[in-house]
Amino acid sequence: MEPDQARTIARFLAERPRRPKNIAFVSGGDGQFSGNVKYLFLHFARHVPQCKSVFVTTNATVHRALRGRGLRAVCFPSQDALEVLARASVVVADGFQYRENGMSVFAIGAKIVQLWHGVGFKKIGFVEAETSLDLPPERRAYLRERYSGYDAVVSTSPFYTEHLFKTSFGAKEIWETGYPRNDALVRPCAKDDLIGCDLESYAQVRTLARRFRLCLYAPTFRDDDGDFFQRGPLRFEALSRFLDREGMILFLKMHAFTSARLGSDLTNIRVIDNASDVYPLLPHFSCLITDYSSIYMDYLHLDRPVAFFPFDRADYASRMREFQFDYDDMTPGPKCFTQDDLERALVQAATDPDADRARRREVRELAFSHHDGRACWRVAERILQLAGVAGEPSGLSPSLAP
Description:
Rossmann fold, 2 domains, 15% strand, alpha/beta, 41% helix, seven-stranded parallel beta sheet
């Protein structure tokens, strides 16, 4: 930043004192409306009327959708967005994008709450910066900088507080509240929850679930190549025929960083928009398939079968992401490396859904202290305390919240 720019921004911030009841929620990725920050923002909009809660996005489509629903939203870098960030007492994020798109400059002086976006088994942050993998020095410095400087980071359990968040983040406080997005798995879907979702897929899922067993395949991205999926072992025509024989339909949800190109004639395989929020759809799936994504941890709240398909496990762990915890210990379900393995796992999920229930519950108890759908209430209470706003959300304690 040039000295003149820095002076202009400093003067802009000095002329706009931060207000305790102003809370800014900043979008991740390409400005999508998803993740923990989405569900906490909706909670504030619904249940914390004493605060001026505003969603700050870089995506004009998201901005219009939120405003169309009567929700406070601004599109960065508009003047309105700069005003919101400059006056907020607390800025809430669930990733680092706000630091990379320029928002963080206007958040200087605010309290920063990092909700983060998953608990699993991979090294992150400070621990990843010390990995034995061949990371360039600039990547290690990037990790140390991005995981530093938070007033609070949200955790899900004592295990992850001690072994992940305390060792991986630089934060003044760690709050064991649970993840806001998991509330959406154990309560009825509200209309505003569907903002940011693939509505066509949502309608298909709700309709098809009455007649078929629905499975979700949600692999994560690979750091070096978005085409890993095409090089994998799946033969999609044969898989579609297998699904048809078994009365199943597979929905594919790629990570936002990747995309899938499948033929249109695969009637038993459907693709969900990779940039969309999949959480309102999760309760409609009878089983989940993933590889290294932490989405399976959240799915454990539903106590349904999970199959793991780490077909490139050795390459992934040796070149891209080092594991902090033992993969087999942390993944309660069959490990599949071929299409035949995966098909057998899907049959088992349909015929014996309780096969790994004890292990699923064991991992869930390790990962989550709460399963009550009230994470938003707990985080909101802590944010109000951090902002210096007296009283609890909507006059209710989290234990009494609906």
